Model the fold of this input.
Amino acid sequence: MNAKLAATPRHRELGLSDDEVLAMYRQMLLARAVDERMWLMQRAGKIAFIISGQGHEGAQVGVTWPMRRNQDWMAPFYRSIAATMTFGMTAEDIITAHLAKADDVSSAGRQMPGHYGGAGYNIVSVSSPVGTQVLHAVGIAMGAWVRGDDVVAITYFGEGTANQGEVHEAMNFAGVHKLPVIFVCENNGYAISVPLAKQVGGLSVAARAAGYGFPGVTVDGGDVLACYAAGREAHERARTGGGPTLIEARVVRLTSHSSDDDQRRYRDPAEVESLKQHDPMGLFSNELRSLGVLNDEIDERFRSEIKQEVNDASKRAEARPDPDPATASRFVYAEWTRRWSATSASCSWAKTWAARGASSGQPTACGRSTATSGCSTRR
Ligand SMILES: Cc1ncc(C[n+]2csc(CCOP(=O)(O)OP(=O)(O)O)c2C)c(N)n1
Ligand SMILES: [Mg+2]
Done:
């Protein structure tokens, strides 16, 4: 083997500079620090619920890195802290959303924690029913294809979610029409407490892609550069008319499913302990250190900058105002208020609505027609 070629670091072979891989590593550190801070805030009673991305950061940052901010579109899932941050969301955006503050960019405090989004970032809001985001991404890709726009849609989901009917429908449709979409399955081996062997017949999600007529690849989610290479190839394929790709990244879930779960009830403590060896943070750090790209000085600088950034972001987010309860229906029922405005307020529900609207400056009359079959107070 050519000694010079063998010595070329992988990231340079992939066309990434030392600064770029350091930026990827820093992005992972930042996502982890935000995640850890939110656990503390949840334990302190400031955040209602947290669903963590710890262990998924390598796959998310690696695969998302080649995507074009403000051009491509993302339909994330609840663990997508690192992916959405790679796509532009800030530490403050993420924490503000979890605190459900009035000016939270994800939903102005209307959504559950972990439901990221932001039209300004080309990120579609997470929806609670798992798998719906996969349809959203395919719809975006279809729209781009019809308009002739240079847009790639990317969506993320777990291996348990891969078994939902709409995921099959979405992938089949994308395969039939060769749409510019990337499906990223972050396989962490569990759907809450249900292990992979009880969820996925054949144990591979990527293998299903053959049935939809596009490539499926399995990557080690602890190997950031392998994830980057898979994301870049998928992006190139989508962008140049080659259609979809399904990337299955094998990751570890370092935390319980959520702050409402305790994985010690269904996972062997030795198994949980062994996961740390597959933590993408340590693996990427070791790789970059062995190349001399990362050293103690850079690492400490990154960590101290990030600590400051997360402290500042939390302080600013906590100081933001809570939403006014009188505006609870705003953004949620906007279409409804337009459609049924200014007719007779003939039911008690409508009168309550009218009173609320009057106090909040919202459109006032419910005017819900007594002929509307869904009106519970219909006479
Ligand atoms: C349609 C639907 N069914 C069930 C749930 C409850 N639920 C939330 S997360 C989850 C597990 C999903 O597992 P997986 O797709 O592997 O993702 P992971 O949480 O492991 O990252 C379930 C069953 C839901 N939100 N929506
Ligand atoms: Mg899972």
The radius of gyration is 23 Å. The chain is about 45% helix and 10% strand. The chain has two domains: 9-319, 325-379.
